[in-house]
Recover the amino acids of this structure.
């Protein structure tokens, strides 16, 4: 594991303006971004053993993060 956070601004460096704008005007997008951040932080805490968790729980968090990222990417593509 890299233990490197996967922040949205790092995942979509070419979409920074759209990320910011959509967070301001689209409540659903803001919810997706907030949930992504929450899950991402939980994964990072698990990876660094700040909050140890089971391998299954960590895998489920990773799957949720991927799902959220896909939803965010789709909304960014529409913007």
């Amino acid at each position: 594991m890299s233990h490197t956070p996967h922040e949205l601004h790092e995942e979509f460096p070419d979409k920074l303006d759209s990320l910011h704008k959509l967070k301001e005007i689209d409540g659903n997008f803001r919810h997706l971004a907030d949930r992504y951040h929450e899950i991402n932080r939980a994964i990072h805490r698990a990876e660094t053993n700040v909050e140890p968790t089971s391998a299954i729980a960590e895998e489920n968090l990773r799957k949720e993060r991927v799902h959220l990222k896909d939803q965010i990417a789709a909304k960014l593509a529409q913007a």
Summary: Residues 17-78 form one domain. The chain has a mean pLDDT of 94.
